[in-house]
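wait is this the right file?? whatever heres the structure
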């Protein structure tokens, strides 16, 4: 999952492979409906303080995908440069 920091919260992008894995996991599957699909078969969801449960959803996917061996990438923009931090769970 790639996470792009915004002013308030995050934009999270799941790859098509991560989506396929999530569809087979009962704890993750229920949350897929809250996300917007992309043209390549991935999903996007927004995490913000005013979206009830969005932070918990992001953490659920970070844990679930991490257990399956997927990495979570945090992308921060510093001026015109993107800084990539990688988390392995």
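ok assuming it is, sequence goes like this
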């Amino acid at each position: 999952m790639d996470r792009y920091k915004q002013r308030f919260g995050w934009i999270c992008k799941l790859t098509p492979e991560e989506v396929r894995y999530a569809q087979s996991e009962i704890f993750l599957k229920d949350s897929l409906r809250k996300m917007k699909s992309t043209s390549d078969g991935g999903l996007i969801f927004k995490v913000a303080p005013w979206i009830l449960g969005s932070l918990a959803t992001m953490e659920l996917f970070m844990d679930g995908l991490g257990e399956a061996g997927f990495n979570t990438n945090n992308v921060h923009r510093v001026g015109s440069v993107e800084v990539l931090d990688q988390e392995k769970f």
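The mean pLDDT is 91. so i think its the right one actually
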